Amino acid sequence: MNELLRRMLFLPPQSSSVALKIDQLHYAVILTTLLGSLLVGLAAAYFLLRYHHRAAPADVPASAMAGSGLPRSVELGAAAFLLAVFVGFWVVGFRQLVELETPPPNALPIQAVAKQWMWSFAYPNGRGSKGVLYVPAGHPVRLSMISRDVIHSFFVPEFRVKKDVVPGRVTELWFEALAPGNYAAYCTEYCGEGHSTMRAQVVALSDAEYGLALERLPPLELDVAGPVYREPAVAGLAPREQLSLAAMGERVATERGCMRCHTPDGSPHIGPSWVGMYGSLVTLADGQQLLADAAYLTESMMDPRARLRQGFQPVMPSYQGLLSAPEVGALLEYLRTLAYRPSALPPAPLSPAGSPGIQLPSAADTRGSSYQEEAP
Ligand SMILES: [Cu+2]
User: Fold this and answer.
1) What is the pTM of this model?
2) Distance 362 CA to ligand 1 centre (A)
3) What superfamily would CATH give domain 108-216?
4) 151 Cα: distance to centroid of ligand 1 (angstroms)
């Protein structure tokens, strides 16, 4: 039945965990409306035949003007039934929407960047791919999407998921591919002359293959304009050293000077600490409370004065145009890893905040080494 209807409606195969449910609602709505229009058509034909001769109004039998001729209770029952059917569609659809908007907590986070006219993806292990999104089959994946230029939209027809990608905001979408395979993804928001070429391939792999595929991907390139990344000068780090996305975010924060005002250890400075910020409720200067989600945090970097945090001065500069989209993605991932509660804080670090390369060894570590003698 599903297969027949799917082919009749020219729908692609259902390849994600939500696709079948979405189609079933689609079938129910289509079949109900088809049946309804069929009944209306039949009734119209019947009345055309029954009353086709021209008659003066007086000739029309009074019974034809007086409703359906059915008992009132039947009429009311039919109306209530129709209403219930459509409210039912709405309830089912709303529950599906909530499901589509709520990524499972164990979903694998992947960052997607849209630009005219291509898609690129960044994985938690710090690798990146362009035009091909690698996902594990049978596992939920959460895509956090940003745009570098205009509005795009990510659409995988076989998964029945679609979400706009809006500059200056982070939008999220999740899906779970049911089986390994290749699935086409399209940009479905007209975005310029190359729009029709803005496609991507979603490649779902089995668990074993997935790990290998990710390892084979090239390291993510953060296209930072300055000289910092061309010649990574941090002592002990080889050029092109492999970093996780969060570690890259930590570096971006250090290089971009965020740590002059923010701390990764829970103590407020010129700006609020980043510990426990991601996903928390923050209070704005006007007393309003707001969820510090990826979208709000991105806005805070691009337009810090739009919504000011209570108890802080409007001194943060705007980073609009200064941070590239992958850098924003890396920063957000870093903020996410700092989202633990302040009560669970480790003791304040001795090293200057935000200098990951410098760690003062504890006494036990230095025993027998010449470190202490050398230190001033
Ligand atoms: Cu596009």
Assistant:
1) 0.59
2) 52
3) Cupredoxins -  blue copper proteins (2.60.40.420)
4) 7
